[in-house]
Amino acid sequence: MIKKSLRVLIFFLITMVIYAYFYKPEPENYGKDGWIMFLIIGVVLVWLGIEWFRKRNRNNE
Fold this sequence. Notes:
Layout: H1 2-23, H2 27-60
Helix pairs in contact: 1-2
């Protein structure tokens, strides 16, 4: 259980780093709304990634 949550956390961090690299958020340019959009899109990407991992693991078993 701890291993799985650790894997999800690492996946979350890697996804956010890659996403931040492409999106390059700059708070002074986007203001508050830019960071809200950044977080929403980041959470959606991570959720889709976790669902994909679950589906892949189910297919392997």
